[in-house]
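Justification of computing resources. Each target in the renewal requires a structure prediction run like the one illustrated here; the chain below, 486 residues long, is used simply to show the kind of job we budget for.
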Amino acid sequence: MAPPPQFLLNFIPKKDDSRSSGIIPALRGLTFTQWAQFWSGWLAWTCDAFDFFSVSLTVSLLSNQFNRPTTAITTAITLTLLFRSAGAIIFGILSDRFGRKWPLVCNLILCCVFSLGSGFVTTFPQFLAVRSLFGIAMGGIWGLSASSALENLPVELRGLASGVLQQGYAVGYLLASVVNLTLVAHSVHTWRTLFWTGAGITFFAAILRSCLPESAVFLRAKDAERAKGTNTSQKTKVFLRETKEMLKLHWKLCIYAVLLMTGFNFLSHGSQDVYPTYLQTSKGFTAHDATIATIIGNCGAIAGGAISGWASQYIGRRLSIILCVLLVGVFIPLWIIPSSFSALAAGAFCIQFGVQGAWGVIPIQLAEMSPPAFRATFPGVAYQLGNMVSSASAQIEATGASHLRTTIIKDGVPTNVADYATVQGILIGVVAAFVLVVTIFGPENHSSRFENHKTAFEEGGGRDDAFTEDGKLSDEVHVDEKSSSV
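Resulting structure tokens:
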């Protein structure tokens, strides 16, 4: 059999036995604290998605409640995405400076408050204001969740863990869809029930994280600084100085990460945010059927994220992303052309398998390429700046569909409707091509031991890089490699 082309070999990480003892032995070696810290991060991200998609699932109900067109309701989605960058900066800095635990707890409590408030508003301007504030709180969750979950696990598990963690997003969407299908459909409070349920789950997540210890990486760093006699004021000065140093050294990497996450966020939001509206408007399905199709799509997302994350540990981060994005391109026709429910549901499963399969690699890909001391701020801000650029995706689709009309047979009568199918197909096709190009020409620091490096409040943290120029693990590590598995 002929060997793989050199092009593909460039994406496959070289085997390094010193860095991998296998997934099964690593799973068996995990402590209760490691399991709990991972799943608390996963739950926080799940809560984030539950509340965000509560708007997407109730666009029609919100439109009737506030007597506004669909394009006006999607403004709430846009505002939430716009303000997430502010939250990523605020909570990312707090996390890299003070630790993972309490910034995430406070972040979750704020999400709970704004989610609860979303269910009590009485006017459309109030709704927009609360969703904007929620965007700030929501912006901090991903960076803090990913850093907390991944840095406490051994290197061998981070690919699989990345995929499972990221699909907390799909699970949140799935749970919101189930609640929308059951509680909302039978509640006198209709759409408000969805936001109140999300607030309760988020409060539980905050309590759970508060009961768990701080990340071991920060406990070690704080003990080391305490032994030196460094006070809080001195650590803050060091943090600011090292942040400036990191930006000077890694500004090109920052730009690349934002470009990558812009493409990924367009891919995700473009295929999900108005999907229930697309099925009801362009295909003539009921809200019940649209919710069922959404649930099927999210099952594909969960499977894709876990499988792709696991595979990335063996074939590399970039190659896993490339294969999943190619899968998206292949199944776009099945996603938009059929008229039957079964075919469209199959298309939704396949598209979300590819979209969220690619996304499943992102937490670990960003963590490994990040300056090690800024694993909450760097990925979180890059992610949310990409979100900000892609924030108008729902409005782009709604506006484009309103101008690009099509005719469907509804109740035996030809009906002129907005053509969401064509608009979504064009958008996702273009974005998938963009993501492919950016990924191919990007960096990959597979199996980086970032937990061994300095934190952002230690001298040299901003200059501490995961790899030397020859691609080997840097000798300037903060912790003995033997103790890298927390």
